[in-house]
Each structure stands twice: as structure tokens, then as C-alpha cells.
Amino acid sequence: MKMRDLYSGRTVLALGLLAASLSVQAEPLRVVSSFSILNDMVKEIGGDKVMASTIVPVNGDAHSFEPRPSDAKTLASAQLLVINGLEFETWLPRLQQAAGYKGPQIVATEGITPLAFEGGQDDHADHSHDHDHEPAHDHDHQHVRAEEGEQAHSDHAHSHQHGSQDPHAWQSLGLAQIYVRNISKGLEQADPANAEYYQRRAKDYAQRIQELDDSIKTRLQAVPVEKRKVITSHDAFSYMGKAYDIRFIPLVGVSSQAEPSARDIAQIIQLARREQIQAIFVENTVSAKLVEQVARETGAKVGGTLYSDALGVAGSGVDTYLGMMRSNTDQLIKALQP
Ligand SMILES: [Zn+2]
Q1: Which member of 9, 250, 327, 328 has the lowest number of beta carbons within 10 Å of its beta carbon?
Q2: Could you list which residues have their CB under 5 Å from ion ligand 1?
Q3: How far apart are CA 251 and CA 236, in angstroms?
Q4: Greatest pairwise CA separation for the chain in angstroms
Q5: What separation in Å is there between the alpha carbon of 47 and the centre of ligand 1?
Q6: Count of domains in the chain?
Q7: 95 alpha carbon to ligand 1 midpoint, in Å?
Q8: Residue 43 domain boundaries
């Protein structure tokens, strides 16, 4: 046979395996992520071997998300589910039940040592079934970390459940490397025929993440450490703050849903004046009302929009994770540069 002459037995075997794998996995793997940032990471690593979709949409607030029937349908059709973990997706158990999804699940933060909620903010409640608590609940605790003594929250009665860990680990490009490894591993396991493809793309993506991380560190050298303090809407930036020595002072807690008390706001305003904080940022997933009030009363300028828990719409430049991290850095440097 001509074939025998042209190909070694090994090549024929490899071609046979390839053909077999193509017939098994001709359709892209259907991967559903809980929110848009993970969805982008899945697309980066999965390329054209995956059909990626997200449950919480772009500019959506995952903390207050209420799944719709169409989300159950999306999840029901998934072959792989990717979530953040660290109790970020409080709405997920109900949705999983509604969808009857029993397939594999990747927890993107697996292996990360999470930051504790500084100040023990208690607003990470499962708001999906906890609304009745809200009016009676007095958020009488401080959100200003530097100002916080034990006394400030020791008398605070916790009336509802919340996570004790900060889920916003994607705000650190260093920790995003762990996300990439976990997602890649999950894709490889769910679709072994394309394992090498995923590994190659994950490696390339990890490289680009590293380059952005390095360039942010270099660029931030233009801002003296003592100037690196800003006010944000909700407490989503602790990981970024830790990575780059920036002090983020949140108006509300780790969830975007808490209503700060008048006392909380007064304390933030005092702190902003005392520390001469230059900039206060709006977030894409949180109402700007409070930010504008604090800006008015302190003379701090509204520095722009930081992307915290969701990407922006397609074509906005903040429609990818790397684009979002780049944009957040640009906004911060612009506002803080002396
Ligand atoms: Zn958040």
C-alpha cells in the first residue's frame, strides 16, 4: 500500500486518534461561566474549541443578581460550569437546582489564599432570600479600614450569614494566573482531545497577564506610595490594593448592596478630607449616587469609572479582563499622578 510507504505506523495511529477525537468533539464544548470576567478567561483559553457564555451579563452586578428562567436554560445546556467561588455566587445553588445541572464545575479561585473581609463587613448576605432583613439591619460599622478599631464593630450584631472571605481575587493579575491554571485544567479534563490546544493558549494568556502586571508595576512608580489612596463604591479592590500598594477606601462593603448609614458616610467624608484624598471612583456595577455626594462634600474629583465585578459591553475596550485591568490602571494613574 502507498499509505504504508508514506506514513509510519505511528503517524497513521495518530491520525486515527485525531479523527476519532474530531468525531467525538466536533461541536465546541459548551462552557457556562457565572460572570463576564470568567467568561472572557474561558474564551481566551478555550478559543474556538469552546462555546462560552455567561450568566451575569456585562455591567451586571453579581451580588444582587436574580437568575431568570433563561439562565436556567443556559446552565442546563452546559457541559462545564466555571464559577469564582469564595461565596461570590450566592444565587448559584438555586439556579443549579432549577437547571438540574449536575455536570462538572471549575472553581476558578481554588488554591488561592483569600483575603479576609477587612473590617468584617457583614453585607455579603445572600440577598436573594434575605431582603426582609435589610430595613431592620443597622449597618453601624465602619468601612474605613485605617480608622477601624476592634471596638468599632465588636458590638455589631450579625443578623445574617455572610462569607468571611473577599471573593474579588480577579482584581490581582498575580492571582489571575491561578484562575488561568484552574480553567485550563478544567477544560483539559472536560475535553481531553484538545488538552494541548488549551495548554498552549493558557500559556500564551498567562504570559500576557504577566506582561500587563509588570507594566502596571512600572507605571505606578510615577505615583508616590503615600498618594496611592482612592475612594471606591464597594469593597472590590483589596486584592489590587495589596498587589500594587494602593489604598482603596470603599463607601460600602464587599457586597454592592449594602446601604451605608449616615454615620458611615460622615466618617468617609471626614477621612477623605483629613487624608486629602484626591479621587473617588464610580464603578460600572454600582450606582454613582453616593460617590457623587461624597465628591461634592469633600471636593475630591470623580476620577472616572473602575470596572470591579463585570466587564463592559463589546467594543468598549473594557470588554476583556486584560482590557479592564489596563483601563482601571489608566484611570487610577490619571487621577493620582502628581
Ligand atoms: Zn463585588
Answers
A1: 9
A2: 236, 309
A3: 11
A4: 86
A5: 27
A6: 2
A7: 20
A8: 24-205
Position 18 in a domain: no
The model's pLDDT over 213-230, given as tens digits with 9 standing for 90+, comes to 999 999 999 999 999 999
Per-residue confidence (pLDDT) for residue 127, from 0 to 100: 33
Cβ atoms of 119 and 148 closer than 8 Å = yes
Q: Measure the CA dihedral 272/278/282/287, to 10°.
A: 30
Inter-CA distances, 24 with 31, 80, 127, 195, 216, Å = 17, 16, 42, 14, 43
Q: What is the CATH number of the domain that holds 100?
A: 3.40.50.1980
Distance (angstroms) between ligand 1 centre and the Cα of 62 equals 7
> What is the spatial distance between Cα 254 and Cα 119, in angstroms, rounded to a whole number?
10
223-261, pLDDT tens digit by residue?
999 999 999 988 899 999 999 999 999 887 766 766 778
User: Could you tell me the distance, in angstroms and rounded to a whole number, from the CA of residue 312 to the centre of ligand 1?
Assistant: 15
- Tell me how far the alpha carbon of residue 11 lies from the centroid of ligand 1, in angstroms: 51
If one counts every other C-beta atom within 10 angstroms of the C-beta of residue 227, the result is 18
Query: How many angstroms separate the alpha carbon of residue 1 from the centre of ligand 1?
Result: 64
Distance 28 CA to ligand 1 centre (A): 31
- Distance between terminal CA atoms of the chain? 76
User: Ligand 1 centroid to 328 CA: how many Å?
Assistant: 15
What global pTM score does this model have? 0.80
Ramachandran category for residue 111: left, alpha or beta (phi over 0 → left; psi -120 to 50 → alpha): left
